[in-house]
Design a protein that fits this description.
Layout lengths: L5 H8 L6 H17 L13 H12 L4 H9 L2 H4 L4 H8 L1 H13 L12 H18 L3 H16 L6 H21 L3 H15 L1 H13 L1 H21 L4 E5 L4 H10 L12 E6 L2 H14 L1 E2 L5 E2 L12 E7 L2 E9 H9 L17 H8 L1 H12 L3 H12 L2 E6 L5 E5 L4 H8 L1 H5 L1 E6 L2 E3 L11 E5 L8 H6 L3 H14 L1 H18 L8 H8 L7 H10 L4 H8 L7 H18 L5 E3 L7 E3 L11 E6 L3 E6 L13 E2 L1 E3 L7 E9 L5 H11 L3 E9 L5 E9 L2 H11 L5 E6 L3
Helix pairs in contact: 1-3, 2-4, 3-4, 3-9, 4-7, 4-9, 6-7, 7-9, 8-19, 9-11, 10-11, 11-12, 12-14, 17-18, 18-19, 24-26, 24-27, 25-26
Length: 727
């Protein structure tokens, strides 16, 4: 694609921007960028200014407003030149500066590098980037500029080293293409997908592209013949219309082949036609006329006009049989066609001064419900992971469209249940749910919702509320998050029981008896926010107050003699050693929890972990994959996380299956120590198949260090398998 000049950019802008003041400010932004990027080059050796001009040109194709165009020209100035936020704000105003800064911040969150062996880690990084992308982009124009920036970078990706090409292509396919799809920007999304696919799976890309080329002549002949028949049919019925073919992008063909396990020849919409008519009424009339002439395929008719997709897409879809072949036909108005290609951009194209101006984010939030939900959820949630999961699972994968009794459309991921629907409507409705009616019939809460379902939720003030089984029923991350929050509050009772038990034991040990009342507790502990007996038990259970200290306060004994003090210190130290308290674990809501790492699964910093409230011994921390968790009372689970990945040495047991050859044990030990591991113990034996079995106890600081050691152990010749043991 030819690189546009600044003159060509201005020519494109002038097709819809006529205000001379706005045009002058855009030219001034170009001059500012040109000056600050002077002497800088891209990897291709071209002057750097080519990139911001190309980004602005892409934005002009979407008829974006002057603010967005200027941000496109300036988007790399803050990060790559001496220009600051204040410089841009002073010269071009706060709005331009904020959008420019937003794009700059998005660019600071990058992958740290990937390889095939680190694919799982790469996906986690992608998820973190997704969360940052939407949480920071309070102004939708930040995302639009970033998408244009990414599109131009993808067009020039061949200038980068192969490793960077693969990283950026994967990032684009995981993050930016789904974003473009959710914004309804089909043309941009299709190019991002195809270009990424070309670098990630070049052989499959070339194969499908070749098949499309090989069948092009035959396909075009079939489409021309069908187009002629449709034009004759519509003309004879006095329609004003336009019929055109629809190009299917390469990656979407590949996805359909993969997802539906179909061969290339079985992809129906390779033979696709689009009919543009004058009005919504004409859309429905046209579908009736077409079905009267050509045989429709059952269950292939979809009405996205009455029920638009979450990205604002509207159209009627049908598949018919003609000349022994299957054709997919889309019928829509001219405005629907514009939205189908340009998405949300079609709604906020530049309007001259004097037109009504609604704040951009407010306008987009009203039109794109998912965007409004995301912003609201971001503001309300204290967990970054919850926001991430909502974006990844509930928004990017929404493809089931259901109705409230009032006719409002709710979009949910495939596999969602009435409980997901209830929590999406309102948290309190979800908590009080006792039943569901779908399409007039009572259904179980496990019922899988389907597009078109009308759902009525039955609630009760006497509902027992969510339980752990609900977490298995719901599909959406939003519902799971709300259920977990509810259950965590209920676990206050468990902590109260622990506090009651500890105080009772302390009274027995010291042969002291105190008749507890709310008044007594408030009198002695009001400075700690305690107003009742239950509050006192809760704080003891949380370990913010020790049972010994609480009893001393209650019997008004503040001082220790020397012998008691020594005994108290020794007892605390013994208890601390016994419980293996780990200060590297954070338990939300608890200031100084008693925590121990479980010996059954030996978790290390970086492992996914789960806490279990043990009676009398604090919180036991297990790896999330520990099989012992299945046998524990789920009401005692509690969320825990690592405070830091920098820690003391932790022992991990590895089992290696190797070929029996000379020096292999020495090479494994050398590889382990070279990459930071501390060898504590090694045993070697031979199994029945004659393979060597080496068990190594290695000391590491965290999971990342362990994964690096395993990755390098796998490179030792003769190592066939490496397994991390639970103990």
């Amino acid at each position: 694609m030819q690189t546009p000049t600044f003159e060509q950019l201005m020519e494109s802008i002038r097709t819809y921007v006529t205000d001379e003041e706005d045009l002058a400010r855009i030219e001034e932004a170009y001059a500012f960028a040109l000056k600050h990027h002077e002497g800088q080059e891209r990897k291709s050796g071209e002057a750097y200014i080519i990139h911001p001009v190309s980004v602005a040109y892409i934005l002009s194709e979407y008829k974006t407003d002057p603010t967005t165009l200027m941000a496109g020209l300036l988007h790399d100035c803050i990060e790559d030149t001496s220009a600051s936020y204040d410089d841009i704000e002073k010269r071009f105003g706060e709005e331009v500066a904020l959008v420019t800064e937003g794009v700059t911040k998005l660019g600071q969150y990058k992958f740290k590098g990937i390889s095939d062996a680190e694919e799982e880690k790469q996906l986690v990084q992608a998820k973190n980037y997704q969360k940052m992308l939407l949480a920071m982009a309070k102004d939708i124009r930040v995302i639009i500029v970033k998408l244009a920036d990414r599109l131009h970078n993808m067009r020039t990706l061949s200038n980068l080293p192969e490793e960077k090409q693969l990283r950026i292509a994967r990032e684009t396919l995981d993050i930016f293409a789904p974003l473009a799809h959710r914004l309804g920007m089909y043309i941009l999304k299709a190019e991002l997908e195809d270009t990424s696919f070309k670098y990630i799976k070049p052989d499959k890309y070339r194969r499908i592209a070749q098949m499309i080329r090989d069948t092009r002549q035959s396909r075009e002949s079939d489409l021309d013949e069908m187009k002629g028949k449709l034009e004759t049919l519509l003309s004879s019925n006095h329609f004003e219309f336009d019929v055109k073919g629809r190009v299917k992008n390469i990656y979407s063909v590949y996805k359909k082949m993969q997802d539906r396990n179909k061969e290339f020849d079985d992809i129906y919409d390779l033979l696709a036609l689009r009919i543009i008519v004058k009005s919504v009424e004409a859309c429905y009339s046209a579908i009736g006329v077409i079905h009267s002439k050509f045989t429709p395929i059952p269950n292939r008719f979809k009405d996205y006009i009455a029920m638009p997709k979450p990205n604002l897409y509207q159209s009627l879809h049908t598949s018919v049989i003609a000349q022994g072949k299957i054709y997919e036909i889309q019928i829509r108005t001219k405005e629907m066609d514009r939205i189908a290609e340009y998405g949300i951009a079609a709604h906020w194209a530049y309007k001259e001064k004097g037109a009504s101006k609604v704040p951009m984010t407010e306008m987009v939030s009203k039109k794109l419900k998912w965007y409004g939900e995301l912003i609201k959820f971001t503001e309300e949630s204290e967990s970054e992971e919850e926001v991430l999961n909502l974006l990844r699972d509930d928004i990017f994968h929404s493809n089931v469209y259901v109705f409230t009794p009032d006719g409002d459309i709710i979009d949910l991921p495939k596999g969602s249940t009435p409980l997901d629907f209830a929590f999406r409507i309102h948290t309190e409705i979800g908590i009080k749910t006792v039943g569901a009616i779908v399409n007039g019939k009572i259904v179980p809460l496990e019922y899988k919702l389907e597009t078109g379902d009308v759902i009525q939720i039955k609630t009760s003030k006497n509902s027992f509320g969510p339980n752990d089984n609900w977490l298995k029923i719901v599909k959406t991350s939003g519902a799971k998050s709300k259920i977990k929050n509810y259950l965590n509050k209920q676990r206050r009772d468990v902590l109260m029981d622990m506090g009651r038990e500890e105080l009772s034991k302390e009274m027995e040990r010291r042969e002291q008896k105190v008749q507890l009342t709310d008044k007594l507790c408030e009198e002695h502990f009001q400075h700690k926010g305690i107003k009742s007996v239950d509050d006192l038990y809760y704080e003891i259970g949380k370990n913010t107050i020790t049972a010994q200290s609480a009893l001393n306060t209650l019997i008004e004994k503040e001082d220790f003699d020397e012998a008691q003090l020594i005994e108290s210190i020794n007892k605390r130290e013994q208890q601390r050693r016994k419980q293996h308290t780990d200060s590297n674990i954070v338990v939300e809501g608890l200031d100084n929890p008693s925590v121990k790492l479980s010996n059954c699964c030996t978790p290390i910093p970086g492992d996914p972990i789960k806490g279990y409230i043990s009676k009398g011994s604090g919180i036991a921390v297990h790896r999330s994959e520990c099989k012992n968790l299945q046998n524990l009372d789920s009401s005692r689970f509690i969320d825990v996380k690592w405070a830091s990945y920098e820690s003391d040495i932790h022992s991990v047991n590895l089992k290696l299956i190797v070929m029996n050859r000379d020096n292999i044990l020495a090479e494994i030990i050398n590889t382990t120590t070279t990459h930071g591991g501390k060898i504590d113990q090694v045993t070697a034996s031979t199994n029945k198949r004659g393979e060597g079995v080496i068990k190594v106890k290695v000391g590491v600081r965290n999971r990342s260090e362990l994964e690096n050691i395993i990755l390098n152990q796998q490179k030792v010749g003769g190592v066939m398998n490496i397994e991390r043991l639970m103990k």
